[in-house]
């Protein structure tokens, strides 16, 4: 172990400690511990983003608090990154699983560890926890992944569409870093490609608006990954792991506006139902970011919504005390923030016991286009007739405004989308003003009967709260690519003009609609650039240089399904 660097009288940091993996590759990490030689439980963070500049403290976890509580913390550069040896690939989840296993077992063998290891961290740092835990290293006793999830559940949340702005931004950042590193080593670098990637990293819209997508500037060079693999879903941006293999307790931290929210929440439910270990879930009004502030989008949810105000570090340390020391308080199975009421709630499961399904039909007098149309949410009537129609033009897509976005130029969270609802390619179905609070807690699903003049197209649904002042605040939204309506493992084209059943899963939420507000469901066919535009041709994604306009119909047999805490009432009378 290298000579320690003292940061405080009772704290030392051992830099670049070498850890051999099973194949002989050396990974390096920094060991933060108190100056005495007492063996202690260790919390491990594995990251590809440079341990030397990683913040020790954040809204998600405070390393200094862990040290004060008697833990040792090890922060490691993953394989091929910064101080660690080996070759790095942007997506190498099986290798990350093995390296996590080997690192945990190496830590447990050190004289400064008491044999108990836990893991913390978010996003990539959370995913490596899942893939490592699935291999069951003997000394890994608990994990606390934040804003992270596995592949299959995440692809379901994206409905078969490609998260374009996020994907372009991430690829550009990774490619730019790789080229700059290569250039610094004296290796040959194509300066044209470097310039194009630098421009896209600064402004992702330069690539997201380009057609065909396979020819996006800079990224088509395949510096990080083959673009065809990325666009087709063959590039595993989130890890596959066996949920049934997770045998250690987990504390999942999720955010209502995080890109991984639904996968994280539903992954917890699967674990809690099937697993013998203790699993816990905390969900707040947060996004995919290094901080967890009270303000998201156009709203501020109050000081208790902040990561610090919610006591995230304290709760993680209590969780680790219980499972690494056998002496901590237990946490409730589920703790969630009810937006609108702006308060924390607890539950024994997700969705909470006491929820019922509220069904509302999509109806109109014949023209639900725009928020000024006559679309309304009503009681479900068997055999309802009629439909609403709009034209979707891929050359003029509906712009992304808020929601679960990451990277790119968009702002995340609950934003006023009333300007979007004035477009004539957006159908709006609105309830009467509420007479009492309505708590929607759980999944929001839209089962639609639709048709299109195209052989493939997208349908996008968004639930909003229309405030008395006219603002329409986005709560959740979802997308389904029609060719994948029967499952992501098969492509089934549409017969033009023939109605089909299709579900849009808008995801999980916990939102109080307040008295005087109205519920609104909007339906359209794009959310760009959060997702790639469907060009309506049915061809392989990324290959088309132009799209086709499509005439879309949404039939009045369509139903909005809400998970409602029954004690809070109903939606009031039909909108007139």
Describe the 3D structure.
The structure is a single chain. This protein has 576 residues and is an alpha+beta fold. The protein has three domains: 11-155 and 237-347, Alpha/Beta hydrolase fold, catalytic domain (Rossmann fold); 164-232, no CATH class; 355-565, Galactose-binding domain-like (Jelly Rolls). The protein is built from ten helices and 24 strands. The protein has helices spanning 63-68, 93-108, 124-133, 151-157, 164-184, 191-202, 205-208, 227-232, 261-274, 312-325; strands at residues 5-8, 11-20, 26-34, 40-47, 72-77, 113-122, 140-146, 250-257, 279-287, 295-296, 299-300, 334-338, 343-347, 355-363, 376-378, 387-392, 427-430, 438-452, 458-466, 472-481, 500-513, 518-524, 550-555, 559-565. The strands form four sheets. It has an eleven-stranded mixed beta sheet with strand order 1-2-3-5-4-6-7-8-9-12-13, sandwiched between helices. Strands 14, 15, 16, 18, 21, 23 and 24 form a seven-stranded antiparallel beta sheet that branches. Strand 2 (11-20) and strand 3 (26-34) form a beta hairpin. Helix 2 (93-108) packs across helix 3. It is globular, with a radius of gyration of 25 Å. Mean pLDDT is 91; it is low at 568-576. One of its GO terms (molecular function) is dipeptidyl-peptidase activity.
């Amino acid at each position: 172990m290298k000579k320690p660097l003292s940061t405080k009288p009772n704290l030392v940091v051992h830099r670049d400690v070498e850890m051999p993996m099973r194949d002989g590759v050396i990974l390096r990490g920094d060991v933060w511990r108190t100056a005495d030689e007492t063996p202690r439980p260790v919390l491990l963070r594995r990251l590809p983003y440079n341990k030397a500049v990683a913040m020790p403290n954040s809204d998600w976890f405070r390393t200094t608090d862990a040290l004060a509580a008697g833990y040792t913390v090890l922060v490691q550069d993953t394989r091929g990154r910064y101080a660690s040896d080996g070759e790095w690939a942007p997506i190498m989840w099986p290798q990350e699983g093995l390296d996590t296993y080997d690192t945990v077992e190496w830590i447990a063998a050190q004289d400064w560890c008491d044999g108990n290891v836990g893991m913390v961290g978010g996003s990539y740092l959370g995913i490596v926890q899942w893939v490592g835990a699935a291999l069951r290293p003997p000394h890994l006793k608990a994990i606390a992944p934040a804003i992270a999830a596995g592949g299959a559940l995440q692809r379901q949340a994206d409905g078969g569409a490609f998260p374009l702005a996020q994907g372009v931004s991430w690829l550009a950042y990774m490619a730019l870093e790789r080229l700059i590193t290569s250039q610094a080593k004296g290796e040959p670098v194509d300066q044209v490609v470097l310039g194009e990637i630098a421009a896209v990293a600064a402004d992702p819209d330069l690539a997201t608006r380009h057609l065909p997508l396979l020819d996006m500037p800079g990224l088509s060079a395949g510096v990080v990954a083959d673009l065809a693999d990325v666009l087709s879903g063959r590039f595993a941006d989130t890890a596959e792991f066996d949920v049934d293999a997770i045998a250690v307790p987990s504390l999942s931290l999720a955010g209502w506006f995080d890109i991984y929210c639904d996968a994280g929440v539903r992954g917890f439910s699967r674990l809690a139902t099937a697993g013998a270990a203790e699993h816990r879930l905390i969900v707040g009004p947060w996004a995919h970011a290094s901080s967890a502030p009270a303000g998201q989008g156009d709203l501020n949810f109050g000081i208790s919504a902040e990561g610090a105000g919610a006591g995230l570090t304290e709760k993680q340390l209590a969780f680790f005390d219980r499972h690494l020391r056998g002496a901590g308080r237990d946490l409730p199975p589920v703790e969630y923030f009810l937006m609108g009421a702006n308060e924390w709630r607890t539950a024994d499961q997700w969705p909470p016991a006491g929820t019922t399904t509220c069904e509302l039909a999509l109806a109109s007098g014949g023209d639900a286009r725009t928020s000024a149309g006559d679309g309304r949410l009503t009681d479900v009537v068997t055999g309802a007739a009629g439909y609403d129609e709009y034209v979707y033009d891929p050359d003029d897509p509906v712009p992304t405004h808020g929601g679960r976005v990451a990277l790119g130029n968009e702002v995340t969270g609950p934003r006023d989308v009333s300007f979007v609802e004035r477009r004539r390619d957006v159908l709006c179905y609105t309830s009467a003003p509420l007479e009492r609070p309505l708590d929607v807690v759980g999944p929001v699903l839209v089962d639609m009967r639709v048709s299109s003049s195209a052989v493939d197209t997208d349908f996008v649904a968004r639930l909003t709260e229309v405030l008395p002042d006219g603002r329409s605040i986005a709560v959740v939204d979802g997308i389904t690519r029609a060719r994948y309506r029967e499952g992501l493992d098969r492509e089934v084209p549409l017969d033009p003009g023939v109605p089909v059943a299709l579900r849009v899963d808008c995801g999980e939420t916990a939102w109080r609609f307040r008295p005087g507000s109205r519920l609104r469901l909007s339906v359209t066919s794009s959310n760009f650039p959060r997702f790639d535009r469907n060009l309506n041709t049915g061809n392989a994604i990324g290959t088309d240089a132009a799209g086709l306009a499509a005439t879309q119909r949404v039939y009045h047999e369509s139903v909005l399904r809400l998970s409602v805490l029954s004690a809070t009432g109903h939606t009031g009378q039909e909108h007139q």
